[in-house]
Amino acid sequence: VLVGDDLRAPLRAFLRAVLRLDDRQIVADERVHFLRIGQNRLELGNCGEQFFQLFDPPEKLFREELRRLRTDHVDYYLMHMLTDTATWQRMKDMGIEQWIAEKKRSGSIRQVGFSYHGNSEMFCKILDAYDWDFCQIQYNYMDEHTQAGRKGLNHAHAKGLPVVIMEPLRGGKLVNMLPSEAHKIFADHPLNHTPAQWAFRW
Fold it and tell me: Digits of tens for pLDDT over the chain (202 positions)?
């Protein structure tokens, strides 16, 4: 859903209210930012960009995150669902690199990374666009050649970049939504592993 100029201001106000009032989660969460309106097509950018647009500068929000986590630092700070280099450039234009550098100098952020949903070509470009400490990708035996895929995984490995794997069971689909033929293949195997075990072993 593309939002016209006449709705942009009230939607921004609504997002601000939600982000301030929702105590159930740290703010950088797609359930708050997306609001399930299309795929965040509010012309506000992705979560990372909204983080800066709605809280510019983000220092107040970051202090609140530390308070909720009951700590003075975050070991692994994740920019959720950084989708393309254009978004990263807009974040750079808003000062994200300087903000990260200051936080790392002070020790309040130890490692910074991003999570990704998209194709392998763009993933590799984002990897090369900044000196990341780690990344997070969707990876399982169905997504070997989609998402960041094996190509992206190998590119991260070549750069010496640690990779966190999400969706190893593809949201449970590799357990609860397998076709009967696949269940039979697993059941007939002498190792007698469950579908979840096969997915994790892979």
Answer: 444 556 666 766 666 665 444 333 444 443 333 333 333 333 343 444 444 444 455 788 888 889 988 999 999 999 888 889 999 998 898 889 999 999 999 999 999 999 999 999 999 999 999 999 999 999 999 999 999 999 999 999 999 999 999 999 999 999 999 999 999 999 999 999 999 999 999 9
Q: How far is Cα 161 from Cα 2, in angstroms, rounded to an integer?
A: 36
> Which amino acid type is present at position 62?
F
DSSP 96: H
Which of 76, 23, 31, 64 has the alpha carbon at shortest distance from 50? Answer: 31
Give the C-alpha separation, 104 to 111, whole Å: 8
From CA 88, how far away is CA 98, in angstroms rounded? 13
The whole-model pTM stands at: 0.72
Which residues are 163's β-sheet partners? Answer: 135
